[in-house]
Specification:
This is Rhomboid family intramembrane serine protease. With about 290 residues, this protein is mainly alpha-helical. Helices cover about 60% and strands about 0% of the residues. A hairpin with a 4-residue loop joins strand 1 and strand 2.
């Protein structure tokens, strides 16, 4: 005699994930029978692990105004600090003295001057941003990078933060190319650091936070560039403008089209800076 398929009438239900386990429990979301091992406590009743997984996939993760996932550990800032320290160590070792490291071969080959860029040495617009003249110059810039950079990296995310940093550096180089003489030299991460300062000011405005401390810091440091010999106010101003513009692109981009607008905006800023640097090279070469 044959029997119909399925359990006989009145047989207990079995767990959908474990057919060998009879159960009287069921998921409050899908209604399928589930054993205690396959149920998770929910806001109302208990849900099976499949429904819990589906619910987690449907929940959007919180992001900052720039689209970054909050809570990420800063990695770019420490890497930049280490890179600057290593470059300084090489220049100091070549010069045989930390105070006269600007006499080293690497410093001479990497420092920025409009005349050398006009001669085709374009790499100096970036490499000069990793050079420092003596330990005090290095300490000031690295301290500012560490304090401001960690907050900015958390707000923007690693890739966006690095873009703002490099565009600030390029902005400082562009200003130097336009406003320095062909034979004048400049070096330091100040353009990039001022880019972060300008970016932080823009971010605070976007977040509707007070600008008191950041505004005062910007004013004081910009003033030092005008009144203290040996400080490049040109690089400071250029970096600040570029960094502020880049950050504005990132924090004001509408969430619905955030990625393409951010990428396009940053690319446009980079293109403008390259054109300015090229124009400065033409002027320096004439």
């Amino acid at each position: 005699m044959t029997h119909p398929a399925g359990p006989p009438t009145g047989a207990p239900a079995v767990c959908v994930r474990h057919p060998d386990r009879p159960t009287g429990l069921a998921c409050t979301r899908c209604g399928r029978p589930s054993c205690p091992e396959c149920l998770r406590e929910a806001a109302v009743g208990y849900q099976c692990v499949d429904c819990v997984h589906q619910g987690q996939q449907g929940v959007r993760r919180a992001t900052t105004v720039a689209g970054a996932v909050p809570g990420s550990r800063p990695l770019v800032v420490p890497a930049l600090v280490v890179l600057n320290l290593l470059v300084f160590a090489v220049t100091a070792a070549q010069a045989g003295n930390i105070s006269t490291n600007s006499r080293s071969t690497l410093f001479v080959e990497w420092a920025l001057s409009p005349g050398t860029v006009a001669a085709g040495e374009w790499w100096r617009t970036i490499t000069s941003g990793f050079l420092h003249i003596g330990p005090v110059h290095l300490a000031f810039n690295m301290f500012a990078l560490w304090v401001i950079g960690r907050d900015m990296e958390g707000l923007l995310g690693r890739g966006r933060f690095l873009a703002v940093y490099l565009l600030g550096m390029l902005g400082g180089a562009a200003a130097v190319m336009l406003l320095y003489g062909p034979g004048e030299y400049v070096a330091g991460a100040s353009g990039a650091v001022f880019g972060l300062m300008g970016g932080l000011a823009v971010a605070l405005v976007r977040l509707k936070r007070p600008l008191n401390q950041v505004g005062g810091l910007l004013v004081v440091n910009l003033a030092l560039g005008f009144f203290v010999p040996g400080i490049s106010w040109q690089a400071h101003v250029g970096g600040m403008i570029a960094g502020a513009a880049a950050t504005a692109v990132l924090v004001y981009a509408p969430p619905a089209r955030r990625a393409p607008l951010q990428a396009g905006g940053l690319a446009a800023i980079a293109a403008v800076l390259v054109v300015v640097i090229a124009a400065g090279a033409v002027l320096a070469g004439t």
